[in-house]
Each structure stands twice: as structure tokens, then as C-alpha cells.
């Protein structure tokens, strides 16, 4: 055999050995940079926000970590199980994922050296973000306002379900007053200390928008930096934002959105690929710790030993303006997201088609579940109940009020599946049919304000 033939065979053999390995690395890198897991986690967060409101309505004992100070804890009051009632932890996930998703494309473009394209993307994204939050929220408010004026919330308002009772507004005395109430509700959603009487969960939308603007401004200031120095800058912003407190709004917005940017940098780096072989060893304990931190109660912190330990550590490590009820749930949400980015198995699990569908309907679910709970769910649960007397106390005074009592477990077991089918069908229709219309309105506004609309061609002038 000639030396030329041997050389060709050797070269061919080397290529066949090298190519699959390189292709495997490229495939792993692409899989690890896939961000579809964020949709899955967003869907889970939306479902648990809804569960937290159901907990406040029908199972308030879960809010407490135990049945009295140093008393026993029921299963649903213990860490991880009690996440069904931990709304603040899942709202923190929303803000972190918002920072992560909004910074993915600009950071990828910046790493490729396309600075001008990244800046253009930031400008367009910041414009679209305002419309894509405001328009669906205003539409959901108008729907809730409309059905409220026909007495749809009266059953919930007169029930013994705490969250339903306190979030169900009264019918306006006249249609003229109702229109004024609607205008105030839409306006107050976007003011300091937001409050929307027709859709209470919308209090978080201002902070989601605020966090998005923090992300856009931070990236605008650091887009020319190298990834290493951009991460260092975000870490400084993260430490600094702990001291913002209520002066900036929600005290957890800054720390969450800056973590989202760092997650995006990590997602675009080589570290997830390098750590993937050992991720099965460190990811499960990290995720477990994160879920325990997210379980920290918003009140009665000293009623269980585990929450008492976290309370003591809060006073040792927290900044001066940190909010106790949000501190550990926010830290836990950040740790959970970091763990997911570094774990291919968790990414793959959160990219399941059912979870991706949940992510697709997560924003409609967030906007609609409150109205459905105060109307349809209340009608179904209390249909066979009669008003009974309840004794309530206000200081030293006691008085009698008439309420619908909570039904038994059998009624819940029968009604809840029916309610979930109707609710998720409505959110799917909203995501498929209504949400695209908001996209069209946003696109038309963008074309108009950015000067992208084509001007009509002038007809030629005839000189007869």
C-alpha cells in the first residue's frame, strides 16, 4: 500500500473520529443554550400564583408554618408542600424570568460583536414591552369591570372565602360612576403602590414593567463591555439594589431583574456545558435548598423551627432595607433559576410540551384566574349554600354578618376539575385569538411611531 493511500485513510479515519465528537459538543451547547425551559417555569409560576390565591380563599391555615408557636405543623404547612400558598416566591420567578428573556437576544448579539443591532433591539423591545403589558391588562380589567356591574361578584363578596371576599368590588351606583371607576382602576394599576379593585393580581404588573426597564437601561449602559465586566457590573447592581427598599417600589425588583441578566450571560457561556457532567450531583441539593427558602412564610415566622432559623439568619445577613417576607423567597427563586441553567436534566424536564403550553398561556392565566374565581368558581361552590350568621370582631366590638359558608370537601372534589377545564380553555382561547390582536396593535403603533409606515406614492401629474 502506498504512503499516499495510507495518508488518505489516516486522514479519513481521523475525521470520522473527530466529527461526531465535535457535532455532539455543538449539539450539547445548542441544547444548553435553549431557553424554552423559561416558558415551562413561567407556566408553573402562573399556576402556583393561582394556587396561592386559592389558599388564601379556602385554606388559610397553609399561610402559617405551624398551628401555633412551637406547635405541630400539618403536612401542607411544611417546607416545599406549602409552596402552593407562596405567591411572593413565584412573582419573584416572574421578574427573574422577565430579566432573563429580555436580555437574551441583546447579550447574544453583543457577544457576537453586533453592537448596533443589539442597541436597536433594546430600543424596539423597550417600546413593545410597555404595550404588551398594558393592552392585555386593560382588556382584562374592562372584562372584569363589565361583569362586576351585573352583580357577578356578589356571591364571592358575601362568602366566607377570605381572598374572594376582600378582592370582590361592589357594583357601582350608576353607569356614569362605573365608567369613572374603570378609568381609575386602569390608571391606578400603573401608579406607585398599584391597586386595581377589579383585578387584584395586577398589582405586580407595574413591577414587571419596572424590572424590564431596569434591564434595558442596564444593558444600554454595559452593552459595549466584555461579558466578564458586564457580569461584574451586574453583581455590583445586584448588591446595590438590596438597599433600594420601598423608595423604588417593590424592594425585590432590582435584585431579581439583575439576576436575570446574569442568568442570560451564564446561558450564553461555556460554563453550563463544562458543568453538565457533574450537574446530577449538585443540582438536586441546590434545588431542594432553593425550594425550602421559597417556602419561608410571610407571617408567623417563629411558629416553626425551620422558619425560626431562617428568621435568625435574616437579621444576620440581610441589608438594612430588606423586606423580611420577600427576602428568603426571592433568594430561593434566584438560586432555583441558577440551578436550572446549570442542569441539563432540569432544563429538559421544564421543556416538556405540556409545560411549554402552560408557559404560552401563563400571562392570560395570570390575568383571568381572579375574575373566574370571583364569578364562576363562586357560583359553582356556593350554589347550594344559604346565607348564615357569622360573628366578627372589630377591637372590643362584635357584630353579626351574613355570609355563604365554605362547602364541604366533596363539593370541592367535584367542582374544581370542572372549573380548571373551563379556566384553561378560556386562557387557551385568549392566547390563540386575543393575544395576537394585541401584537398587531403593538406592531401598528411601532410602525407609526418609528416612521416605518409606507407613505402613499404620489400620482403623476398630467399636463394636458
Describe this structure in words.
With 464 residues, the chain is mainly alpha-helical. It has 18 helices and 2 strands. The protein has a two-stranded antiparallel sheet with strand order 1-2. The radius of gyration is 26 Å and the shape is globular. Residues 1-20 have low confidence and may be disordered.
Short summary of the structure?
The protein has 18 helices and two strands.
List its salient traits.
single chain, 464 residues, mainly alpha, two-stranded antiparallel sheet, 18 helices, 2 strands, globular, disordered N terminus, Acyltransferase 3 domain-containing protein, acyltransferase activity, transferring groups other than amino-acyl groups, membrane, transmembrane helix, Acyl_transf_3_dom
Major sheet attributes = 2 strands, antiparallel
Topology as a string of helices (H) and strands (E):
HHHHHHHHHHHHHHHHHEEH
The amount of beta strand, in percent, is: under 5%
Task: Count the DSSP helices.
Answer: 18
Decide which structural class fits the backbone: mainly alpha
Task: Detail the poorly predicted runs.
Answer: 1-20
Mean pLDDT: 87
N-C termini distance? 89 Å
Give the total of beta strands.
2
